[in-house]
Amino acid sequence: MTDSQTTVAQLKQAIHELCLQKGWGDQNGIQNPQHVAMAMTVEMSELLERFQWLEPGQVQDLLDGKDPARARQIGEEFADVMMYGLQLMYSLDIDVAREIELKIGIVLKRPNGVRGRNIPKETTEHEP
Ligand SMILES: [Mg+2]
Q: What are the tens digits of pLDDT across the range 5-61?
């Protein structure tokens, strides 16, 4: 599988089949979405751990492709995060591409330079 050859639907299906093969979740391979969301944050922490205490030069090395071992670890943890995320979207029948498209539309409506918590509430529809 590569990004250019694989659809989001194929990834969701592959992860669902993994759940079924491993006996995770209920008889349909569906795990409690609350548990999956919580597990996703644990994996997100593991991803952040790969960046913990890096000096700016080390970050630049990563960007320049000079630390393939760390990049590989980051990829592995990102896969964990994405696998839980896609599992969550599968179980709740949420279309990831549609949600991202909607979110891009919301962000484009914001004034430039406005991010996250500084967003006036009336400009957010999905804002957490
Ligand atoms: Mg992990």
A: 999 999 999 999 999 999 999 999 999 999 999 999 999 999 999 999 999 999 999
Domains and CATH numbers, the chain: 32-94 (1.10.287.1080), 95-128 (no CATH)
Q: How far does the centroid of ligand 1 lie from the alpha carbon of residue 125, in Å?
A: 31
Does the reported pTM lie above 0.70? Answer: yes
Cα of 43 from ligand 1 centre, angstroms: 5
- Would you say the C-alpha torsion 84, 26, 24, 10 has a positive or negative sign? negative
